[in-house]
Task: inverse folding
């Protein structure tokens, strides 16, 4: 038996599955079509604790082990068929809140974390630019020192939650050198003079969370809002993407769990040529592959979560996190492609959750490091000159 | 094993990808020469924390502490003192 196979973790998963069914069920077809983000639902998710996990108890958070957080997101994602919403919650928890918890000073933590936990403040993670993503050194946004402040200029692109973010973690170059110390992370309020939300982007998946630009035109930010020290941006980035790869990736498990049940039911009950389609080996093979992908994905995610729960640091688990993200993303997409085939034209209809989950899954090979970048990372950590 | 020797061995075996850097001296510039890049930095911190029982604080992550094998050894020795 695996260390994460225990009643406490099962109970966490079951609790959040039920909470999702109680408060977040329903048909998301219309919301998916219109790309509707609901602040009311966001606050409800905060109320049931999804944004309080791994946060300091002194500020009202729940200091639960990583395995329990993963279980909560698995259960919640299984009950809530709104993949964009689940992704957005995990994005804020892992990318924003854990970063503030680890790298901000006490005053910043006290100012921001309680409001982020209770859903009254929403934040975005401003790293990617139009011409800079995995190649961090090519970043164009700059921060120039001015007394006790920095002045930020630049434009962040394809940012989750950007259109309505109250605050953002913004990465900027504080040195022109191509060095691991040339980037600095700042916590910026979007109501600062010169900060604006820019254009919004339409996407094919995760449609219920919106994506846009964050624009900084001579925005003055106090030095006290630096996260991780001047030049510590890449360390901040490595930690936050590590948490996204280790924890946010668990948002793939819910759709796989419910998708598998639906596909097995379909294979048993849909008859063609006087027998269920599951009696044909081409379908039963797909189901076998889906079982394998779902089960191994759970194993990879919980195995890493167990290591982190036991106290291992994120940078010693950097390769495990890259492997988890890569493995689960690839398998999630293939799983959803098989589900589409099993459901045939029914799955192709916009009213079906099958194609919605497939469209959502396609983003998993992109966010927090593309699969190509992750393969490079894994190889490089084995000493290859990639 | 001496701290500096352990750090030198690790950098040469794990971080050096360019054959021109295989004969590194303890004072050679690791960041300017590209021996330590962003991912290498994370690997190195993990190595120092796991093998030398030190915790590298965020505020210690400055170029001066990682510019050379001498500088890294000095940081570790200071933290172990």
Result:
């Amino acid at each position: 038996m695996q260390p994460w196979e225990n009643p406490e973790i099962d109970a966490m998963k079951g609790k959040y599955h039920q909470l999702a069914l109680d408060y977040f069920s329903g048909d998301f077809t219309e919301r998916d079509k219109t790309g509707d983000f609901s602040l009311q639902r966001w606050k409800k998710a905060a109320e049931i604790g999804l944004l309080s996990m791994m946060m300091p108890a002194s500020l009202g958070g729940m200091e639960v082990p990583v395995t329990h957080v993963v279980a909560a997101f698995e259960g919640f994602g299984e009950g809530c068929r709104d993949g964009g919403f689940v992704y957005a919650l995990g994005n804020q928890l892992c990318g924003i809140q854990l970063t503030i918890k680890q790298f901000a000073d006490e005053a910043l933590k006290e100012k921001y974390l309680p409001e982020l936990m209770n859903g009254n403040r929403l934040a975005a993670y401003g790293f990617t630019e139009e011409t800079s993503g995995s190649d961090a050194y090519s970043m164009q946004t700059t921060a120039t020192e001015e007394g006790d402040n920095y002045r930020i200029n630049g434009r962040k692109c394809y940012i989750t939650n950007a259109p309505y973010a109250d605050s953002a973690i913004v990465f900027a170059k504080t040195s022109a050198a191509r060095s691991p110390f040339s980037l600095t992370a700042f916590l910026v309020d979007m109501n600062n003079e010169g900060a604006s939300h820019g254009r919004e982007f339409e996407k094919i998946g995760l449609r219920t969370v919106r994506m846009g630009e964050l624009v900084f035109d001579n925005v003055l930010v106090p030095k006290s809002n630096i996260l991780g020290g001047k030049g510590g941006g890449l360390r901040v980035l490595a930690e936050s993407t590590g948490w996204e790869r280790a924890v946010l990736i668990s948002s793939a498990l819910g759709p796989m769990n419910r998708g598998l049940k639906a596909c097995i039911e379909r294979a048993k009950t849909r008859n063609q040529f006087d027998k269920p389609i599951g009696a044909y080996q081409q379908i039963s093979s797909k189901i076998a592959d889906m079982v394998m992908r779902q089960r191994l994905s759970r194993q990879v995610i919980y195995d890493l979560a167990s290591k982190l729960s036991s106290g291992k640091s994120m940078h010693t688990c950097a390769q495990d996190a890259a492997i988890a993200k890569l493995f689960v993303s690839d398998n999630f997409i293939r799983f959803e492609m098989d589900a589409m085939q099993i459901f045939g034209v029914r799955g192709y209809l916009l009213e079906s959750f099958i194609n919605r989950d497939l469209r959502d899954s396609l983003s998993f090979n992109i966010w927090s490091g593309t699969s190509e970048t992750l393969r490079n990372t894994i190889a490089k950590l084995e000493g290859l000159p990639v | 094993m001496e701290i500096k020797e352990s750090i030198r061995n690790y950098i040469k075996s794990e971080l050096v990808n360019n054959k021109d850097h295989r004969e590194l001296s303890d004072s050679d510039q690791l960041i300017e020469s590209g021996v330590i890049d962003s991912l290498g930095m994370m690997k190195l911190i993990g190595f120092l924390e796991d093998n030398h029982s030190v915790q590298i604080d965020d505020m210690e992550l400055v170029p001066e502490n990682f510019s050379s094998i001498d500088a890294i050894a000095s940081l570790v020795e200071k933290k172990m003192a």
About this structure: The interface with chain A takes residues 13-14, 17-18, 31-32, 36-43, 45-46, 49-50, 58-59, 61-63, 66 of chain B (CB under 8 Å). Residues 31 and 37 of chain B are 7 Å apart (CA to CA). The longest helix of chain B spans residues 38-51. Chain B is about 55% helix and 0% strand.
